[in-house]
TrEMBL record:
<comment type="function">
    <text>Phosphorylation of dTMP to form dTDP in both de novo and salvage pathways of dTTP synthesis.</text>
</comment>
<keyword id="KW-0808">Transferase</keyword>
<keyword id="KW-0545">Nucleotide biosynthesis</keyword>
<keyword id="KW-0067">ATP-binding</keyword>
<dbReference type="InterPro" id="IPR027417">
    <property type="entry name" value="P-loop_NTPase"/>
</dbReference>
<dbReference type="GO" id="GO:0005829">
    <property type="term" value="C:cytosol"/>
</dbReference>
<keyword id="KW-0547">Nucleotide-binding</keyword>
<dbReference type="GO" id="GO:0005524">
    <property type="term" value="F:ATP binding"/>
</dbReference>
<dbReference type="GO" id="GO:0004798">
    <property type="term" value="F:dTMP kinase activity"/>
</dbReference>
<protein>
    <recommendedName>
        <fullName>Thymidylate kinase</fullName>
        <ecNumber>2.7.4.9</ecNumber>
    </recommendedName>
</protein>
<feature type="domain" description="Thymidylate kinase-like">
    <location>
        <begin position="8"/>
        <end position="200"/>
    </location>
</feature>
<feature type="binding site">
    <location>
        <begin position="10"/>
        <end position="17"/>
    </location>
    <ligand>
        <name>ATP</name>
    </ligand>
</feature>
<dbReference type="InterPro" id="IPR039430">
    <property type="entry name" value="Thymidylate_kin-like_dom"/>
</dbReference>
<dbReference type="GO" id="GO:0006235">
    <property type="term" value="P:dTTP biosynthetic process"/>
</dbReference>
<dbReference type="InterPro" id="IPR018095">
    <property type="entry name" value="Thymidylate_kin_CS"/>
</dbReference>
<dbReference type="GO" id="GO:0006233">
    <property type="term" value="P:dTDP biosynthetic process"/>
</dbReference>
<dbReference type="Pfam" id="PF02223">
    <property type="entry name" value="Thymidylate_kin"/>
</dbReference>
Amino acid sequence: MAGTFISFEGPDGAGKTSVIKAVNEALGNQLGAEQVLLTREPGGDRIAEQIRDVLFDDQNTNMDSRTEALLFAAARRQHVVQDIKPALHEGKVVLSDRYVDSSVAYQGGGRHLGIDDIWELNEFAIHDLLPALTIYLDVPSELGLQRINEHRADQVNRLDREKLAFHRRVRQAFLTLAKRHPHRIVVIDASAELTTVIQEVESLIHSRFPTLLPK
Ligand code: TYD
């Protein structure tokens, strides 16, 4: 496939959204905005967005963990087919705010469903489409939760509200994944200042894909 697929991962409060926004702007300036697709999971086309609404409906307090895992994977499948693959075929850079590793970390680790089982479930959904690079923004869980409470208390979702132990399991699962996929997943220390994190991410993209971003 001609394009370049980059995913961004991180526990809640890692500053992921701000980092992606900056990368999207830098790539857009370099390549032209139409050459970059910024997208997020769960989400994408109409069907994936409808699944997102089910997942984050505050009234769905009795959602079974396996149902949750299946819905995230279903939304991902739809996103891959309707948004990511077509953009890659057109030669675009696709920046995805979360992808398969989030399911492995949140459902596999956080919800205790198991890293391997959730990986397998998602292999069915993604059908070999892995990012060329996954940037994992790492922060200690306490700091992540503190940032959420300070900055986005009004936008807290069903998963954000989970307890500290849940978020610690999520982080551990992300770190396990990074060890298992050392070339694809690069860990960036996101406890540093935002500008430092952005610089580090942009220089990583430059070193992996020199034609996309100049130094
Ligand atoms: P969202 O508000 O979209 O954004 P952010 O990435 O900034 O947190 O929240 C997505 C939530 O869904 C987040 O808590 C992680 C969770 N999630 C999963 O549990 N599994 C998944 O497969 C994905 C993609 C997300």
